[in-house]
Amino acid sequence: MGEEALSGAKDMRGFIPAIIREIAPRDGVERMLATQMAATHVALVRQGGRMANAEQLPQFEAHERAYNKLARTFTAQMEALRKQRNGGKQTVVVQRVDVSDGGQAIVGNVGGSGEGQR
After folding, report:
1. Which DSSP symbol is given to 100?
2. Which residues contact 114 (CB under 8 A, 6 or more apart)?
């Protein structure tokens, strides 16, 4: 291993725990997910470097495929963390509602499966 590679490995030893602390896991499941997210992010950045330094099109395409898979994985991990923290519930906040003269607005939970229900 070259000196630069060793230096990069040392940087990652501090970087990964910093990512995990920033995510602030609340329990063991979130801690495992935060660890996976940190590792995926590091792999994503490294793959981006390989893609940028590819000298031939087949190399670039292989690195690009790996990069895209890692990016999708990271996005899925973020969604899993959101669901874990919200108990699977999605919250929508409406900050402004305009109701014209003669109109009506409903505030609260609205149920139903759509048009045609009575």
Report:
1. -
2. none
3-class secondary structure for 50-78? HHHCCCCHHHHHHHHHHHHHHHHHHHHHH
3-state secondary structure of 108: coil
Residue 9, token pair as written in the block:
């490995």
Q: Are 81 and 37 in contact (CB under 8 A)?
A: yes
- Which residue, chain included where needed, has tokens 């305009």? 98
Residue 56 DSSP label: S
31-68 pLDDT tens trace:
999 999 999 999 999 999 999 999 999 999 999 999 99
Identify the H or E element spanning 5: helix 3-23
Give the pTM: 0.66
